[in-house]
Amino acid sequence: MERQPVTEFDRVVPEFEHLVFVYGTLTDPQRTRAVLPDESGTRSRAGTVGKDTERPGAPDEPFAFVGEATLSGLRRVEGTYPTLAPGDAVDGRLLTVDEVGLATLDAYEGVDRGLYVRVAVPLEAAEGGASEGGPEEGAGDGGPPVPTDRAWLYVCDPDRLGADATWPGSGSLETRIRRHLDRVDATVRRRDRRPPATGE
Hints:
Low-confidence stretches: 1-14, 40-59, 128-145, 194-200
Number of helices: 4
Order of helices and strands: EHEEHEEHHE
Radius of gyration: 17 Å
Helix content: 10-25%
Distance between the termini: 40 Å
Strand order of the largest sheet: 1-3-2-6-4-5
């Protein structure tokens, strides 16, 4: 079986099992560091990865930004906190975390309190095909990359946040979100980070 080319989105260390599409405060690396601290010093990596990482080579961060992305089928709305509602699209970033990091994000977003719901959305390839080049030095031991078929995202009921939007239909918020995502075929598309050709 022929090996597929490695893209910058595959340059993640094996223990980061999850991709999360972030579109609000967690797009800021400083905020993400505050939410996902490595207080014990036991969760370490060989180095950060991807051109989108803010502190190359930081061995102690339990996450990595691995590129910019666009979520189609939903739009960002402002309230007490930002959330998503039915609409065209929203730009954000892809964040990789391990199981502990995902549980920490769930707690931060209030999933257990019913504030935000975490749902999976299919992940498309970057526009323009795969990026060139192999894994960066020190970016892992060649183990399996983060699954690249889906990304998690967090959504809150706009009414709870005072945002001017609604999720149509009946049932729980999660049911209405999933129904909408299935109906509009929502996806997260990784944006190619290569500069566009200038042609003329």
